[in-house]
Design brief:
heterodimer; A: alpha/beta; nine-stranded mixed β-sheet; two-stranded antiparallel ribbon; 13 strands; about 25% helix; B: alpha/beta; six-stranded parallel β-sheet; five-stranded parallel β-sheet; 17 strands; about 20% strand; globular
């Protein structure tokens, strides 16, 4: 029986800083449940303690979340990988990048390394076609491509900006969270101490117009025909239109 | 003789009855100024600076398509690599293939590339990561820089896995000694020594590019390794029409403000230009455009290369939404409107008439 695992993390509201469901992971759960059905998908989360956000994830249609309890200060990745190796899932879904911490987006690649399977980044959608999976991968600027292939594969799901799904209370009550302890045969590695400081305001790239900042002085007064010509020339010179 | 030396060593004693004073201005003028370290005297751009044995190599992976020369993101990446390499370092520009022949070779040289490496092999990210890793190993490159976007980011993380390290992503500041990255979504930052793989976000600010012509010697990287996705077939990259694209992903946006009254003409122009449609808050409030087309602080932050605004005055909230746009063109009847100071091309004319004229010219050009 095909199985799918969704790696879950606790997200962070960019404005208020409150813990929330990570956007990419909610997308991942929707995709996984749609292509595997509720019973064959389960969530996997590793942290020292259970966050109330995990229960919200249950409300999106997961029947079960496994919480791998790690020691405080321990790097969660090795025990997560060890558990994944034991399960041997067909598909692993995870978010493209975390919403907290360094958000380096390396987890999907570490999973793929642990399971010796390929990894596909920026996944927009997945559909199941018999034994194969049809994956749509985003390539930036609205471009995308289709990939078709067999499991096992690790999918890093792109976050969607608009609209968080609303967890259903019935699903939260029906789902369960199983707690397991970090596997004993993994030597606990402490995550390296990071030099974290409050953010400073740093310059960002900004584009400035070339017309003068003095009001009204950079304007070209043209009749419609020559204005149209001028605009189209500008667009062609800068390779915006052919 | 010994008496003379003693006189030179010690300042003469003040005459009895005078106060010993220091004259700071005099001391300052006596102090010899250290010569300012200028690593390269500014010479004319036709003199090529050649680096044979670089102290350190910094590689930069340029993923740009190369249509119409070097992409802006790639140019920025090379500038960052150049300033990281320092005066005695060299910059390797790793490209998939030479984009446009001679003109772009010159552009790479201007942007600060000492060597250009043509990466062979397949187009898959795994294959590229493997080959970039090989190049970095051959040259002993200290860092490999990538733009943090969908395609390059994928390659970069695969390379970091090969180096068995965590890449530096969401970089705010980068020097040879330290890299500062965003932490917890930008509310905090983490300082660390730079890893080998560094991802620079598209809005990373660079020091000014040096005005030197570098060599950009093309090195064909022989014997590319083939790595493929076993059992997976990869389809062609599809670019959807701009009309079906979310506004924040569009590369070219045509936008309407209160000065637009002919909406059929506006939509027709957008489809002729293959541009996504956007609008100011006013037109979305009036119901002329759906809410998801609103550009600005309470709408969408546009990431387009070009933004063509009709009848938009440019409220600060609206201008916030177009911060990332490289080219802004405005057509407005008010020559004193706010958007004029932001626009690269500001035209004072009636929007309806200009839209009509543009449609006419585009239809004539397309036959």
């Amino acid at each position: 029986m095909a199985k799918a695992v969704v790696l879950l993390s606790v997200g962070r509201n960019p404005v208020s800083g409150r813990a929330r469901m990570a956007r990419a992971e909610t997308r991942a759960i929707e995709m996984a449940v749609a292509s595997f059905g509720r019973e064959d998908v389960f969530g996997l989360h590793a942290s020292p303690e259970i966050s109330p956000v995990l229960r919200e994830y249950l409300g999106l249609g997961l029947a079960c979340i496994e919480h791998v309890q790690t020691r405080p200060g321990e790097d969660a990745l090795p025990s997560l990988m060890e558990r994944l190796r034991q399960i041997g899932p067909d598909l692993v879904f995870c978010g493209q990048a975390a919403e907290t911490g360094r958000a380096s987006g390396i987890v999907a690649y570490a999973c793929a390394d642990a399971l010796q399977s390929p990894v596909i980044a920026n996944v927009l959608s997945v559909t199941r076609e018999g034994n194969d999976f049809l994956v749509v991968q985003g390539m930036g600027k609205g471009r995308h491509r289709q990939l078709r292939g067999p499991s096992p594969v690790v999918l890093a799901v792109d976050a969607v900006q608009d609209g968080a799904p609303i967890p259903s209370m019935a699903n939260i009550r029906a789902g369960r969270i199983d707690v397991t302890h970090a596997a004993g045969n993994v030597a606990p590695t402490t995550s390296p101490a990071l030099d974290v400081r409050p953010a400073r305001v740093r310059p960002k790239k900004s584009f400035r117009g070339t017309s003068s900042t003095t009001r009204g002085s950079g304007v070209e007064h043209l009749d419609p025909e020559s204005a149209a010509e001028r605009i189209l020339d500008y667009l062609r010179i800068n390779n915006i239109i052919q | 003789m010994s008496g003379n030396q003693r006189e030179a060593d010690f300042a003469p004693l003040p005459a009895p009855g005078t106060i010993l004073r220091r004259n700071p201005r005099d001391e300052r003028s006596q102090r010899r100024r250290a010569p300012i370290q200028t690593h390269a005297p500014r010479r004319a751009l036709d003199e090529v600076l050649i680096i044979e044995d670089a102290e350190i190599w910094i590689a930069a992976f340029l993923a740009g398509e190369g249509e119409g020369g070097l992409a802006l993101a790639d140019r920025d990446l090379l500038t960052a690599a150049r300033s990281l390499a320092g005066p005695k370092g060299g910059v390797l520009a790793i490209v998939r293939d030479m984009p446009d022949g001679v003109s772009s070779a010159k552009e790479l040289a201007m942007a600060g590339a000492d060597r250009v490496i043509l990466l062979g092999g397949a187009d898959t990210p795994d294959c590229q990561a493997e080959n970039i890793g090989k190049v970095a190993g051959d040259f002993g490159a200290r860092h490999v820089l990538f733009t943090e976007d969908a395609v390059s980011g994928d390659v970069a993380r695969r390379l970091a896995m090969r180096f068995n390290e965590t890449p530096a992503s969401r970089v705010r500041h980068l020097t040879q000694q330290a890299v500062i990255c965003e932490f917890d979504g930008g509310t905090r930052e983490v300082h660390m020594s730079p890893p080998r793989v560094i991802l620079l976000p598209p809005d990373y600010t660079n020091a000014a590019a040096e005005a030197r012509l570098r060599e950009a010697r093309v090195v064909r990287h022989v014997d590319p390794v083939q790595v493929d996705l076993p059992g997976w077939s990869i389809g062609q990259v599809i670019t959807p029409p701009a009309s079906s694209m979310p506004l924040r992903e569009a590369d070219f946006v045509v936008s309407a403000g209160a000065g637009v009254s002919d909406w059929t003409r506006f939509r027709m122009l957008a489809s002729h230009l293959n541009a996504a449609i956007g609008g100011s808050r006013v037109v979305c409030d009036q119901g002329d455009l759906p809410r998801d087309r609103q550009v600005g602080a309470s709408g969408v932050q546009v990431d387009a290369r070009a933004y063509l605004a009709f009848g938009i005055s440019g409220a600060p909230q609206h201008l916030e939404g177009i911060q990332a746009c490289q080219h802004v063109i405005s057509v407005n009847t008010d020559p004193k409107a706010n958007i004029v100071s932001r626009a690269n091309l500001a035209i004072c004319a009636d929007a309806q008439a200009v839209m009509g004229a543009m449609i006419g010219k585009l239809e004539a050009a397309n036959g």
